[in-house]
């Protein structure tokens, strides 16, 4: 069977599809995203969308760079929404392509509401978000029965580009077993200080996961207190992960194993739990 036989929804002229492109590796595109790329007349994309993915667009498709900078306040957001409306009203098939998932820290909700207000029909195609794809490629499971039964995604930037104040930092520090911060590099010092001040142990396992799923993927294993210094050697885009699950990487760094890393089958030193599975 090929993709054409799947009866995927047709990309209709005058529609906008808000589509997640995943964190980088084209292998993480959904079939729906690939179908949208192959059918769109115009692709409006962010900086975070990998060039190899844009290359999958139809050869006559117009590529429009909606050059927002991650984390900065975005005066251009209304312009982007207005552009989507204009293109759709011209009868184009408009693909709004975003890194990761469009509804997770991607402003997809804002853009979709602008489409609703303008009466432009739209569809959402979810994508593999950076945390899901990035931690998988880093060999860090987000949950594990022995150490984590919940995971929390947090943005390091609010609307005005600052560390969010409306978060309950005490609850995060004490209650959230695994924290994954997006857009964390710029404010890493403040994030670390707030978590420690709110009671998270400075020696908690932590990692920075940068350029995940691309050829320049870089993972730095550190501690909560050590993350400030570790962040100096990392460039965005990056995730900051705090939690004992990071220790599982000693056993699960499958990419590292491809280049010779020896994996520890009992990275938490809890062989009893493994045996109980
Ligand atoms: N909608 C996107 C997130 C956009 S916010 C998603 O679902 O993934 C931008 C942030 O995403 C970056 O600051 C970084 O924290 C994270 N990010 C995106 N791509 C990444 C990658 N390949 N590696 C690490 N982090 C990434």
Describe the structure in your own words.
By secondary structure, the chain is an alpha/beta fold. The chain has 11 helices and 10 strands. A 5-stranded parallel beta sheet has the order 3-2-4-1-5, sandwiched between helices. The structure holds S-adenosyl-L-homocysteine. The site of S-adenosyl-L-homocysteine has 26 residues, from helix 5, strand 8 and strand 10.
Detail the topology: elements first, then pairings.
Layout: E1 16-20, H1 31-39, E2 42-45, H2 51-54, E3 62-65, H3 77-89, E4 94-98, H4 108-117, E5 122-125, H5 130-138, E6 151-155, H6 169-175, E7 178-182, H7 188-197, E8 205-210, E9 218-223, H8 227-231, E10 238-242, H9 249-252, H10 254-258, H11 271-276
Parallel strand pairs: 1-4, 1-5, 2-3, 2-4, 6-7
Antiparallel strand pairs: 7-10, 8-9, 8-10
Helix pairs in contact: 3-4, 6-7
Bound molecules: S-adenosyl-L-homocysteine.
Fill in the keyword field for this structure:
single chain; 277 residues; Methyltransferase, Cobalt-precorrin-4 Transmethylase, Domain 2; 2 domains; five-stranded mixed sheet; 18% strand
CATH topology of the largest domain: Methyltransferase, Cobalt-precorrin-4 Transmethylase, Domain 2
CATH C-level label of the largest domain: Alpha Beta
Q: Give the helix level as a range of percent.
A: 25-40%
Low-confidence stretches: none
């Amino acid at each position: 069977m090929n993709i054409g036989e799947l009866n995927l929804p047709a990309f209709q002229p005058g529609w906008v599809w808000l589509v997640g492109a995943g964190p980088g590796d084209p292998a993480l595109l959904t079939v729906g995203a690939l179908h949208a790329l192959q059918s769109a007349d115009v692709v409006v994309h962010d900086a975070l969308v990998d060039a190899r993915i844009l290359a999958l667009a139809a050869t006559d498709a117009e590529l429009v760079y909606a050059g927002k900078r991650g984390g900065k306040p975005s005066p251009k957001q209304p312009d982007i929404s207005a552009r989507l409306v204009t293109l759709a009203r011209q009868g184009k098939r408009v693909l709004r392509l975003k890194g990761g998932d469009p509804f997770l820290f991607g402003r997809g909700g804002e853009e979709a509401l602008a489409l609703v207000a303008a009466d432009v029909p739209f569809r959402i195609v979810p994508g593999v978000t950076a945390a899901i794809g990035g931690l998988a490629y880093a060999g860090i499971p987000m949950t594990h029965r022995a150490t984590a039964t919940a995971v929390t995604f947090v943005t390091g930037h609010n609307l005005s580009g600052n560390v969010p104040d409306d978060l309950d930092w005490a609850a995060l520090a004490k209650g959230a077993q695994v924290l994954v911060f997006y857009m964390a590099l710029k404010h890493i010092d403040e994030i670390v200080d707030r978590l420690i001040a709110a009671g998270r142990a400075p020696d908690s396992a932590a990692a920075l996961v940068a350029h995940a799923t691309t050829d320049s993927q870089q993972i730095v294993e550190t501690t909560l207190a050590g993350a400030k210094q570790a962040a100096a050697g990392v460039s965005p885009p990056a995730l900051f992960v705090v939690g004992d699950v990071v220790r599982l990487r000693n056993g699960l760094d499958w990419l590292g194993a491809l280049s010779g890393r020896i994996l520890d089958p009992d990275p938490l030193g809890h062989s009893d739990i493994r045996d109980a599975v």
